[in-house]
Write a structure and sequence with these properties.
It comes from Amycolatopsis dendrobii. InterPro entries: Amino_oxidase (IPR002937), FAD/NAD-bd_sf (IPR036188), Flavin_amine_oxidase (IPR001613), Flavin_monoamine_oxidase (IPR050281), TAT_signal (IPR006311). It holds the Pfam family Amino_oxidase. GO terms for molecular function: L-amino-acid oxidase activity. Keywords: Oxidoreductase. With 533 residues, this protein is α+β, with helices and mostly antiparallel strands. It has three domains: 162 residues, FAD/NAD(P)-binding domain; 166 residues, Polyamine Oxidase, Chain A, domain 2 (Alpha-Beta Complex), CATH 3.90.660.10; 93 residues, de novo design (two linked rop proteins) (Up-down Bundle), CATH 1.20.1440. 32% of the residues lie in helices and 20% in strands. The protein has 15 helices and 26 strands. The chain has a seven-stranded mixed beta sheet. Strands 14-2-1-18-26 form a five-stranded parallel beta sheet. A hairpin with a 5-residue loop joins strand 16 and strand 17. It binds flavin-adenine dinucleotide and phenylalanine.
Length: 533
């Protein structure tokens, strides 16, 4: 996973299936066309938007439900159940709602499982979304933002002005994404055009197809014509060393253009597919002021009576007609609560450690999820030198360094200060987690200097980091589900009166949308049961 631009765990499969789905739809329309059944504009739109924001429970349920965990899944389950008439109590071990949805601001204190305590020294207006930070347009998360009145703004996931840098491949210096893109598209186009023109693809293409493909490649790769041998010889798309301006200033195109061999040897092209992913495509969004605006809004909607913080669940007992939950009160005394149903919205490994009587099959199933980790290191700077000096306004630099990527802020442009985020997965996250917080920041700064030079060090004002396997009560960044297995099927259904929820129970692991969707599924199942005669 480390250094990979692919999504963690299941994502390669998901990425491939997304490509397959697009192809499938195209093929379906082609077949319909051949049969004379092509959809007309009024009869069936080419794209039917999924109906996501119409979640409403029919009828009212009066049962009492105890929800374990006040992350997005637990809060959303309680929020929807409360709307449906249920009497809900959420038990959350931490002193804040949100779980992995954690935003650090000036004054935020966090102690990790190593015992290191950090107090964020960020200035006014500076924050680190240490967990979730971006939301795709199709995700149900945005519907909750709308419903809860959480304003959103654009999150810049891709920026041609940001860099790619592969140190191990011998890149002498970071390169703008636009430059890599131009060269990679250019050379791929040149090769494909040559192969097409020489007849290497004659068994695949008709003469008309070939013409159309060559036309496309000339535009897509900015390559020459047949007479020039379809040559890629650079393009203004690569950028300029002196920008075009007034009068005689035509601009000085960036040069020299690396050879085809060099372009592929440097391997920077592998970062270009990042935003092809359904989950990662621009535009993306973020709540104004920090991602924790979402759990805070859910908590507000629930009210303090329904959400008990600093309350750690210690036991679950399922009986024929009730569920008993044991917990530790904030003052350390033992508490106990009895409800008609329970929604367990805890991470799978954490849940597996809580004594319960749900049976060995449930216990074994909980062990089948593959745990992944990630770390975010937020570096606050005294000036926004990436805007003034590098002309980077948001977006992501991708590297093969152990920091993996650098995020530039998508808000607060031209403000006095800003925060860069180093974000890595897997082993790199563990390596950063092994360091004390100051040492993490120092190491991340040294890596970033390779991209940005001295200001990456000298302008640093403060730092705050989270290595997610060290986060109390959570102990991971995400868990990859054993999709299609009996374990996945088993936990998708209630165990007696206990329902399970969390992003780990969906095809959207590592996304809040998964937490919301799983909560909605559990709520629907529970409600149908309560209303069934
Ligand atoms: C680094 C990182 C980046 C991410 N990026 C994105 C992103 O850009 N966009 C996006 O949409 N999603 C992102 N995600 C995923 C998103 O954070 C999760 O999908 C979502 O927040 C999971 O919510 P949940 O309620 O299922 O689980 P959690 O948030 O893990 O909630 C579980 C809750 O249970 C509590 N708990 C544990 N033990 C007990 C106990 N004994 N008693 C009581 N409570 C207990 C925990 O404290 C926690 O609050 C990211 C996650 C990480 C870590
Ligand atoms: N959702 C998380 C984790 C993730 C990373 C990359 C791909 C898929 C998921 C993020 O966007 O940062």
């Amino acid at each position: 996973m480390a250094g990979s631009v692919l999504p963690p765990g299941v994502s390669r499969r998901r990425f491939l299936s997304a490509v397959g789905t697009a192809g499938g739809a195209g093929a379906m329309f082609a077949t319909m066309g051949a049969l004379g059944l092509a959809p007309t504009a009024h009869a069936s739109p080419r794209y039917e938007p999924p109906r996501r924001s119409d979640f409403a429970l029919t009828g009212r349920g009066a049962a009492k439900v105890v929800v374990l965990g006040g992350g997005i899944a637990g809060l959303a389950a309680a929020y929807e159940l409360t709307k449906g008439g249920y009497d809900c109590t959420v038990l959350e071990a931490a002193d804040r709602p949100g779980g992995r949805n954690f935003t650090a601001r000036g004054g935020t204190v966090q102690t990790d499982l190593r015992g290191d305590t950090q107090t964020a020294a960020f200035s006014e207006g500076i924050y680190l979304n240490a967990g979730p930070a971006r939301i795709a347009q199709w995700m149900v998360t945005l519907d909750y933002c709308r419903e809860l009145g959480v304003p959103v703004e654009v999150f810049t996931n891709t920026n041609a002005s940001a860099f790619v840098y592969n140190e191990a491949a011998g890149m002498r210096q970071p390169e703008r994404i636009r430059t890599t893109k131009a060269d990679v598209y250019g050379y791929v186009s040149e090769l494909l055009a040559k192969a097409t023109d020489r007849g290497a693809l004659d068994s695949e293409l008709t003469a008309t197809d070939k013409e159309r493909l060559l036309d496309f490649l000339r535009d897509w790769g900015a390559i020459g014509n047949k007479a020039s041998g379809w040559r890629y010889a650079g393009t203004s798309r690569r950028g300029y060393s002196t920008d075009p301006g007034a009068g005689d200033q035509a601009g000085v195109p960036l040069g020299p253009v690396p050879s085809l061999a060099r372009t592929f040897a440097e391997g920077a092209g592998r970062y270009l597919s990042f935003d092809f992913a359904y989950e990662q495509a621009m535009l993306m969004f973020q709540p104004v002021g920090g991602m924790d605006r979402i759990p805070l809004a859910l908590a507000r909607a629930l009210g303090p009576r329904r959400l008990r913080l600093r309350t750690a669940v210690t036991g679950i007992t399922n009986t024929a007609d009730k569920v008993g939950v044991a917990f530790l009160e904030p003052n350390g005394t033992q508490g106990h609560l009895v409800a008609d149903f329970c929604v367990a919205a805890l991470p799978p490994r954490v849940l597996a450690r809580i004594p319960h009587n749900l049976g060995p099959e449930i216990q074994a199933a909980l062990g089948k999820w593959q745990i992944g980790t990630a770390a975010k290191i937020g570096l606050e700077y005294r000036s926004r030198w990436w805007e003034t000096d590098c002309r980077i306004y948001g977006g992501i630099t991708h590297t093969d360094l152990d920091i993996e990527r650098i995020w530039y802020p998508s808000h607060g442009f031209h403000g006095p200060r800003g925060l860069l985020v180093n974000y890595c997965y897997g082993n790199h996250a563990r390596q950063y987690g092994d360091l004390a917080p100051d040492a993490r920041a120092q190491r991340a700064v040294e890596q970033g200097v390779k991209i940005h030079g001295g200001k990456h060090r000298t302008e640093l004002a403060s730092a705050f980091s989270v290595a997610w396997h060290l986060m109390p009560h959570i102990e991971s960044a995400w868990a990859t589900p054993p999709l299609g297995t009996p374990a996945y099927q088993l936990l998708g259904k209630p165990a007696g009166r206990v329902y399970f929820a969390g992003d780990w129970l969906t095809h959207l692991t590592a996304w809040q949308a998964g937490a919301f969707e799983s909560a909605r599924l559990a709520v629907r199942q529970l409600h149908e049961r309560v209303l069934s005669p």
